[in-house]
Design brief:
With 373 residues, this protein is α/β, with parallel strands linked by helices. It has 13 helices and 14 strands. The longest helix is centred in the first third of the chain and has 20 residues. The protein is elongated and about 65 Å long.
């Protein structure tokens, strides 16, 4: 029995649209961008989007990469570890072979395995925990931000050489990122024979930190270092000041969130924070700053320029060896890159051989300025 296929005009039109869509997709290079778009850490996702999307727009305006446009695939991981693997799998399912990956260390650690298994070149502009690259020593995963064991000793040097406190308390939020960086600071301070009078974890999500504040008042440290995020530090700061504490507080880039002021109010005055250095002031970034202005995006934030640099590295790699991610990973391990965060060069685990941190001091309104040593 013979069947005759009949195509209606509507089906013919649909087939044409599908064919065009396939052709369009083949003419783009997808870059997955999994980062927090919901939840309390959305500011970090906003910074990654600002940096990555501005770089993508600028590269596309200049003709793209090997005649193809870069296409961003935005994915929400909410900075939650339980959403790490689903978000990474969404990168895989999108067809992207490259990613500007997660902001938070707790999300990044479980996601790295997916990128390694699937052969996706991913670069995190925000995850600083050594566990990200020490656990499985990845080949496809990289960073454009320094590790906690770079940031921690840097903070410890500043504390010991500039602040020179007689006693120090180190607190953390018991999470991958917070406890990791706090441990690095504590260990580096011990090597400098600094007097650490307290080392303790607090619970994320608590609304009353009276118990730990009472302990702090008992030892009365000159400086209190907190490893974690802004929500917990904001409450600690406010409640400590309400109880009459005037001690200096210090924290890592995870506390540098605009919502910190909403929580702590004027208690933020005097807070010291280690952040990536101010890349907006680098003379070599004049054109980069013009791109942020052109596309009307905010260039400020700890992860903005690292995200911009991640896209630059991906684009340079594809220009050099094409879209084969295995060749791309090999190329990235073997070559240096000129980026918005300066020259980038990787070690065998995909970590930066050098990254420049700086110390910033906050005023009561939440503005902060670079502190000169």
């Amino acid at each position: 029995m013979t069947f005759t296929r009949r195509f209606t005009p509507a089906l013919t039109a649909l087939a044409t649209v599908m064919a065009m869509g396939t052709a369009y997709a083949a003419d783009t290079i997808k870059i997955g961008i999994p980062q927090p778009m919901t939840g309390p850490s959305t500011q970090y996702g906003d910074q990654i989007q600002a940096g990555a999307l501005t770089a993508i727009d600028a590269i596309n305006a200049a003709g793209g990469v090997k005649g193809k446009k870069l296409e961003a695939v935005l994915i929400d991981d909410a900075c939650e570890p339980k959403q790490a693997v689903p978000a990474a799998n969404r990168v895989v399912n999108s067809g992207a072979k490259f990613a500007v990956a997660h902001a938070c260390s707790g999300t990044t650690v479980p996601a790295v395995n997916i990128y390694e298994q699937e052969g996706i070149v991913a670069i995190t502009p925000g995850a600083t925990s050594p566990l990200v690259t020490d656990t499985i020593k990845p080949h496809y995963f990289f960073r454009t931000i320094g590790r906690d064991d770079q940031q921690g000793p840097f903070a410890a040097d500043y504390i010991a050489d500039v602040v020179k406190p007689k006693s120090i308390a180190v607190l953390h939020d018991k999470q991958t990122y917070g406890s990791g960086v706090a441990t690095q600071v504590r260990d580096a301070l011990k090597k400098k024979n600094m007097n650490i009078v307290m080392y303790e974890g607090i619970n994320v999500g608590d609304s009353d930190y009276s118990a730990v504040i009472t302990k702090l008042k008992g030892v009365n440290p000159d400086l209190i270092y907190f490893g974690g995020y802004h929500a917990e530090l904001g409450l600690l700061l406010r409640q400590a000041r309400e109880q009459g504490m005037t001690n200096t507080f210090m924290g890592p880039e995870g506390v540098a969130n605009r919502d910190l002021v909403a929580i702590a109010g004027p208690a933020v005055e005097g807070l010291l924070v280690t952040l990536p250095t101010d890349f907006t002031k680098m003379p070599a970034n004049k054109e980069v700053m013009e791109n942020f202005s052109k596309y009307k995006r905010n260039p400020n934030g700890a992860f903005t320029f690292p995200a911009y640099a991640a896209v630059q590295i991906i684009a340079d790699t594809i220009n050099a060896v094409g879209e084969d991610s295995a060749k791309g990973a090999d190329y990235m391990h073997a070559n240096a890159f000129n980026t918005a965060i300066g020259e980038v060069e990787y070690d065998a685990k995909g970590d930066l051989k050098h990254f420049e941190f700086a110390v910033f001091k906050w005023d009561k309104d939440g503005n902060f300025d670079l502190v000169e040593k």
